[in-house]
Amino acid sequence: xxxxxxxxxxxxxxxxxxxxxxxxxxxxxxxxxxxGEVLAAQGMRVYGxxxxxxxxxxxxxxxxxxxxxxxxxEEGLTKLAHYPxxxxxxxxxxxxxxxLAGIKHPDRIAGxxxxxxxxxxYDSWPARAVPLLRYVMKWYYPLERMDFSNPRVQAxxxxxxxxxxxxxxxxxxxxxxVASIKKMVKLPIPALAELFLLTDHxxxxxxKLTTPLLIxxxxxxxxxxxxxxxxxxxxTSAAEPKRIYWLQxxxxxxxxxxxxxxxxxxxxxxxxxxxxxxxxxxxxxxxQTVEPDENPDDH
Length: 299
What we know:
Blueprint: E1 8-10, E2 17-22, H1 33-41, E3 45-49, H2 58-61, H3 66-79, E4 85-91, H4 93-104, E5 109-115, H5 125-133, E6 139-140, H6 151-164, H7 175-184, E7 187-188, H8 189-205, E8 213-218, H9 227-235, E9 242-247, H10 260-274
Parallel strand pairs: 2-3, 2-4, 4-5, 5-8, 8-9
Antiparallel strand pairs: 1-3, 6-7
Helix pairs in contact: 4-8, 5-8
């Protein structure tokens, strides 16, 4: 059985299209596997990269940073180098890395898909303190202040657990179980600081992106504020064509959430529009430009 933290390679070797899938910060290739299987079934070669430091052991993540993550993406691009049409699809931090790849390789990458992707994390005092805290604190416990009686919180945590074990169950009425989960999930602050620096670097470069771009964001994302999608749309002024597709009920992990089929369809349609020659006649569809949502955080 394949480890959830192992890279995966799917689809026909003789495909004309390939997709590099990039998971999020502290995540694993497993969160992108469902999407990868859908794309592979449509005749595409798919590589789900495992980013440096993302073995599942937080002590390894603490020793990695943006240079190593960017190098992992370059290794993934090299693995798919001989495919004529290459698309890069990233979730959250993976979306940041996908955008930077599109900027660096405009002639190599046919299109970029940014899922739940941040342009900034500095929207609160705790976030602004992260670059300084890295020198005095080692760990951040993201679940510590969450309300485990909230059904949305329960659903998101169970969703994450199912990526590791499809048969996992959690008794949210058990105080000991809740306390254990809150202490078990921890993120290294030095690596978080690297994520913030990577996102800052990407934001400054976005005006250079000329590659076709699809942004998919949920109004209900509790990790990346929906306003980030509008900011990304505005900053990528040279990307053409580009559009935002809004989800209504999903949380952050949209590739595994209740609207995942919509996400998969939008990505497939985007690829078919950018590369109509590689699409089956019944798959090819038109994509209309959608303007940014004026008040994304009001939904």
